[in-house]
Please model this.
Amino acid sequence: MRLSHRLTQKPKLNQTLRSWLPILQAKTDELKEIIEPLLEDNPFAQVLSSNSSPNLHSNGSFEPISTQSLFEKLSSQITPPLFPSQKTQDIANLIISCINNEGYFEYDDEILGEFDEEQIERIRLRFAYLEPVGVGAKNLKESFLFQLDDLGVEDEIYDSVKFLIDNFENLEKYTKMPKFEKAIKIIKKFKNPPAIEYLEDEMQICPDLFVYTSHKGIELQIADAFYPKISIDVLPEFEKNSFVSDKLKQAKDLIDALEMRKATLYKIGLMIIEYQYDYFFGGDIKPMRLKDIADDISRNPSTISRAIQNKYLSCSRGIIPLKRFFGTDLGDGDTSNTAIKDFVKNLVANENKNKPLSDEAILQKIKDEFDIKIVRRTITKYRKLLNIASSSQRKKLYSIKA
Model:
């Protein structure tokens, strides 16, 4: 049975949600660490860990990890003097929201559209000084340049390495240049993708939503058991005391914020199921915008954007980032750019390493698979967004790895 909820009533806790925005943005397994400092000076409330001992994956098992995520690592570095003002910090945090799981920056107009692109670019370039080095770059070359600047190599070899990076697509022309071998050895040390050490961790993340499918339809559950609990302990006769009442309000606001987070994610989950119903039974992801969800649940698109960052949904098809469900219609009303990107990524992952697919060859395979009309430059754009090098660059990369 298709879910068709229309959730138009405005939640009454907007101020609470804004006051405790980190609770909305945090991953489920980070909530306790975020809430505890907020109640540090509150003698009437304490944060209790979840009673569950989760061990759940695609078969219903789950195992959260305790290592720091890429999002956490970058967020902890958005501080002065590199980001001196509140505005630069706000933009930097939005830039983090646009960094994919490989560590590359993908501009998102819905997230960054209110800011000047030149200003965004100036702040993004400061990511060259963050760890892990190379994260925040737009593509392979820029990531390598970030990593080169961090190495602190001698000027002479630096110039040679930079030259080869800038001319990566024509390496075979420069094999006889002085210091070629030494420069290539340095290039081989660079990480690609720049957040490679975080990719394995992302396979063991804590889902925020669980979708169960059967012949009867779809059931949605939120990961309520993994949320921390806030315990309040105060004698009734003291509740009218101004100090006590302030502390009680603080704790109750946090409880409200947790409930708001659950309600918002649950509503987003319902809307995803409604818009992407066929996906959960083997279909493709269809066109969907943040504004679609925002209008349905009477929220601002920026709130939805924050809510889905670093959040995941577990279903029979695996653990899926919520952000993946939002793509652009390619014109046939039924195919999203997300589906095309996934197809391109899979093609390249399984291509013949001795004869990588050209953009023209990828385009033809897409036309055969989806029966849609797009042009080659669109494929080139998607390939770059996926941080996939050109066929000639990939052939050189395969050769270097070999």
Q: What stands out?
A: Strands lie at 45-48, 209-214, 217-222, 229-232, 312-315, 318-321. The chain has 18 helices and six strands.
